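Protein record
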Amino acid sequence: MFVKYFLTMSIIQLAIAFINKIIINIILYYSKQNMQKEILMYSANDNITFWELKNLSWSDHVITVEQLQKIQDIFVQHHIDAFTMWSKDYHYKFHSVSSKPYIIHYMWDLSLLDKNILWIVWPRKPSNYSNKILRKLFEHAQKYNLVTISGMADGVDQVSHALSIKYNIPTIAILWWGLNHYLKWPNRHIIETIVENGWLVISEYKLNFKPTKYSFPQRNRIIAWLCDVLFLPEAGEKSWSLITAEFAHNISRPVYTVPNDMFVSTSVWVNQLLASEKAKLVVDFEDFLSQNFKKSWVKSTHNTKVLNLPPEQDKIIKLLSTSWELSLPSIMQKTNLDTDTIMQHITLLEINNHIYQNMPGSYSIC
């Protein structure tokens, strides 16, 4: 009796597994994304490695119909596409990347990689001088046929993307997390605006991959190889900005900077780059841009799309609307936000012309 029961259960389990395999193959065959089946299989299971993906050897991993359907829905819903390094769709620019990525996930216009790309790198806590430099650069850049690229890090990279949106300059965001993970990110409105404009968002990581301290520099290597020109207004000692500029120089990407005050700590290392001829000096933005990019025949206009402000920025705006001006300590006290968060959002509000400084450290609504 027991043997008969055991044989019956085994037959049922084999039948279920066989049906499950048929359904998975049907899903893969009729994928709306026309996706390579290995990409869907790889994304459906967090335990499948790059090596197993490359060798198509994931038989030891169990993938259910529900997992596969869920991951395909994410691809379809967010218009995500992907290609692997051994497929004919692998973009030629990625072949030059050191430790080139095995797989690239992206949303929207991959042809932006064929344009001349400008990467702007600066410290996590930029000075007012850097903010002024960047605004002036973008005022001139809107007249040129270029694409900006950055890595969507808090504060610094977001400013570059926000200015690109403001001046209607196409921008590429290279994420250090999976494309699906950004939906849980507090500042996802910037990525959503990039997507709405039909520009480009890229990640080499699985859809649900969470950012780590290792994925940050990994992302930088891709940006350095994809960009054509790097602009660095300032950099502190041993900062990622300085390390990135050195790396870009070593792979023959031209590095540019502006005159800096030799008595300011964030200027010393930029001046050393100039002294060692690892960076070129910019004294006129038109000269800099015309040397590296072609003028656009289409007149650029500011993007009229209104960003839905994140809660922190909305809180600052509402607070300032009740006063003629407020000092930074007052804003911190009344919003209960820490210094880094306040400075990050105040910088973005200034750049988008929502607020301005009456005097150093005091802010008003524009």
